[in-house]
Design brief:
- The chain has 247 residues and is of the alpha/beta class.
- The protein folds into two domains: 9-164, SPOUT methyltransferase, trefoil knot domain (Alpha/beta knot, 3-Layer(aba) Sandwich), CATH 3.40.1280.10; 183-246.
- Helix content is 45%, strand content 11%.
- It contains ten helices and seven strands.
- The chain has helices at 18-30, 48-54, 58-62, 70-73, 97-109, 127-130, 150-164, 183-199, 209-222, 227-246, and strands at residues 9-13, 36-39, 65-67, 79-83, 94-95, 114-118, 135-137.
- Helix 1 (18-30) runs parallel beside helix 7, helix 8 packs antiparallel against helix 9 (209-222) and helix 8 (183-199) packs parallel to helix 10 (227-246).
- The longest helix is centred in the C-terminal third of the chain and has 20 residues, at 227-246.
Length: 247
C-alpha cells in the first residue's frame, strides 16, 4: 500500500520505454514519493524492463494506477502542473521546479490534491495534455540542448519536493565523534602557545608584543576547532618542547 504521507501524484503520460518508467519509480522513491500514475504505456503493462530498472522501488510499479487518458489520470485532482521544455501557445503560469514544489506543498497542506505531468520521452507533452494543467514547470536547462530524460526530470522534481518538506540540509559538518571546542578550551590553547612562544623569544620587538598576541588570539578564534583539534595542537606543542629540551 502507498504510504500515508501527503504528496503529489506523479503522472507519466504515454511513457515509452519500460526502463524509463523504472528509473522514474526509483527516482520517486529516493525522495519518499510513491504515488505513480501511468497513461497508456507504449509497451503494455506490467513491463519486466521497468521492474528490473526500478530495483528496490518495484512496489511503486505494483501499485501504479493505469489510465487511458490524461484527463482521467488527474480527474480527482484540484491542481495540476505539467513539465515542459518548449514554448507553448497557451497562457499558463510558468514555474521553476523549486517554486512549483513549494507551491504544491502549500496546496497539499491546505487539503488539495495535486498532480505533476511528465511527457513521453520522444516529444514530451502535447498541447492537449498541457490544456489540462493549471501551471507549467520548466527547468532552466541549456537552450541548445533542452531535452531531459524522463527519469532525470522526475528525479529533479522529486528532489525539489523533498526540499519543500524541509528534509534537505544545505550544509552540515560531520563531527567524527567529537564536539566543537568551547571558548574556554580555545583560550587555554592560546595561553599555552603564548607561553611557549614567549619562552622561544617569538614576541620581538617588545613594542609589538601585544599586537602580535592579539593577532594570534584572533587567529585561534577564527578557526573552527573541535575538541580533538585542540588536544592535538596541545600535543604538538608539548612534543616540540620535549624534543627541544632533549636536544
Amino acid at each position: 500500500m502507498p504510504t500515508e504521507t501527503p504528496q503529489p501524484a506523479f503522472v507519466l503520460i504515454r511513457p515509452q520505454m519500460g526502463e524509463n518508467i523504472g528509473a522514474a519509480a526509483r527516482a520517486m522513491w529516493n525522495f519518499g514519493l510513491d504515488r505513480m500514475r501511468l497513461t497508456s504505456p507504449r509497451d503494455g503493462w506490467p513491463n519486466p524492463a521497468a521492474t528490473a530498472m526500478a530495483s528496490g522501488a518495484g512496489r511503486l510499479l505494483d501499485e501504479a494506477q493505469i489510465y487511458d487518458s490524461t484527463a482521467a489520470a488527474v480527474g480527482d485532482c484540484t491542481y495540476v502542473y505539467a513539465t515542459t521544455a518548449r514554448t507553448r501557445d497557451l497562457t499558463n503560469p510558468v514555474l521553476s521546479p523549486e517554486a512549483a514544489m513549494t507551491d504544491a506543498a502549500e496546496r497539499i497542506a491546505a487539503g488539495q490534491k495535486v498532480a505533476v505531468l511528465f511527457g513521453p520521452e520522444r516529444a514530451g507533452l502535447e498541447n492537449s495534455d498541457i490544456a489540462v494543467a493549471n501551471a507549467l514547470i520548466t527547468v532552466p536547462v541549456n537552450p541548445e540542448f533542452p531535452s531531459l530524460n524522463l527519469g532525470q526530470c522526475v528525479l529533479l522534481t522529486a528532489y525539489e519536493w523533498r526540499r519543500a518538506q524541509g528534509a534537505v540540509t544545505d550544509r552540515r559538518v560531520e563531527m567524527a565523534g567529537t564536539d566543537w571546542a568551547s571558548v574556554t578550551e580555545v583560550e587555554k590553547l592560546a595561553d599555552h602557545y603564548e607561553e611557549r612562544l614567549a619562552q622561544a623569544g617569538f614576541f620581538f620587538p617588545e613594542h609589538k608584543e601585544q599586537s602580535m598576541k592579539l593577532n594570534l588570539r584572533n587567529l585561534w578564534s577564527r578557526m573552527p576547532l573541535t575538541q580533538v583539534d585542540v588536544r592535538m595542537l596541545h600535543g604538538i606543542l608539548r612534543q616540540m618542547v620535549r624534543w627541544k629540551e632533549r636536544g
